[in-house]
Amino acid sequence: MAIRYPGGRLFHESDHSAKKKSVSSQVIYGNRGMSLEQEINASNQYYLTHGIAVVHKKPIPVQIVDVNYPKRSAAVIKEAYFKTPSTTDYNGVYKGKYIDFEAKETKNKTSFPLKNFHEHQVQHMRACVAQGGICFTIIKFTQTQEIFLLPARVLFDYWQQQATGRKSIPKQAIIQAGYAIQYHINPTVPYLDAVDKFMATIQ
Amino acid sequence: MAIRYPGGRLFHESDHSAKKKSVSSQVIYGNRGMSLEQEINASNQYYLTHGIAVVHKKPIPVQIVDVNYPKRSAAVIKEAYFKTPSTTDYNGVYKGKYIDFEAKETKNKTSFPLKNFHEHQVQHMRACVAQGGICFTIIKFTQTQEIFLLPARVLFDYWQQQATGRKSIPKQAIIQAGYAIQYHINPTVPYLDAVDKFMATIQ
């Protein structure tokens, strides 16, 4: 039986399956166009809905200067400025533990530049580690689509040396001290597998 | 010896001590004018600088629609809208544990209205508790300046009943199931003392 829309137009199932396909493609081949941030957000959504972990990206901090309250509609922010974040982007809870991390990508092939971090972010990670939090960075080399979890203490070592030494972390050091994360279908970036390995070394 | 400013104007120490006094009054008598949010932010700052805990308020989530990038000055957000937060306001790490809470004040004298919470915030707290997080609400009765830590599970009970039952948590129930927080000088709201008592009951 032909199915029709209320207006009388015929319903073509193929229209819908085509749409559906493009949506699911977006999810499965996420690594072909999504930024690392989008991939991690999607993975966090997966972890949340499956009761595995609760991790959220913090909103971008803005200083709101002027807000308009039009009648009968939503408040409009008319003037605001970006503030420097005082923490990392992601935190949450996994197996009762506090986890805290920053996700960064680089086009570099052989090293990860330290200029991707701010002093206060490193300070924040130090404070979290001191409280027994699980802190790390997720680093993606976009040229090769390789992703690693790098424990915060490795970042601290290079951060401390940078005044006198090199201004980046060699990829070789990341491979040796970090944990590789393989792309997957669901979640796209299964970084908690790497967190498990990392947690096993510090308990 | 008279001390002068570069312009030649005399320096009067009394001007400065007067200013100093007003600043320290703001801190000590915080509960006489500060909102609960300001009091908790100040307490978190104390906990952070003394290496006791790392807890931050999350930035207000906004949907940015239009940004202006003027030459030689900071980017200006020209149009943005407030988004409904999908989590609670505060989270962080204390003694290796993930803590997560919402801070709310009420002018009511005998009960705390449940309309102070959104469904997704309660859902978020449920998810955090399921992961072993320490979740609670800090409730302030502004009329009497009384503050309590209320474990999330008590909120869950009343939240579930509200479709058929009362739409608020009686103050008596908060006194019985919660932990009173006494105002202090530093930190203003020493809520981690109450967290210690709460944590002792769930471990």
From TrEMBL, chains A, B:
Q: What's the stated role of this polypeptide? A: Endonuclease that resolves Holliday junction intermediates in genetic recombination. Cleaves mobile four-strand junctions by introducing symmetrical nicks in paired strands. Promotes annealing of linear ssDNA with homologous dsDNA. Required for DNA repair, homologous recombination and chromosome segregation.
> Which cellular component appears as one GO term in the record?
cytoplasm
Q: What chemistry does it catalyse, as a reaction equation?
A: Endonucleolytic cleavage at a junction such as a reciprocal single-stranded crossover between two homologous DNA duplexes (Holliday junction)
Q: Which domain of life is it from?
A: Bacteria
Q: Which cofactor does it need?
A: Mg(2+)
Binding residue positions for Mg(2+): 87, 89, 102, 121
Please report which protein family the annotation says this sequence is part of: Belongs to the RecU family.
Quote the subcellular location field of this record.
Cytoplasm
Which key words are in the record?
Answer: Cytoplasm, DNA damage, DNA recombination, DNA repair, Endonuclease, Hydrolase, Magnesium, Metal-binding, Nuclease
Quote the record's cofactor note. Binds 1 Mg(2+) ion per subunit.
| Marked site positions, Transition state stabilizer | 104
Q: EC number(s)?
A: 3.1.21.10
Record's SUPFAM superfamilies?
Restriction endonuclease-like
The gene is recU
Instruction: Output one GO BP term.
Output: chromosome segregation
Question: Which protein are we looking at?
Answer: Holliday junction resolvase RecU
A GO MF annotation of the entry reads: magnesium ion binding
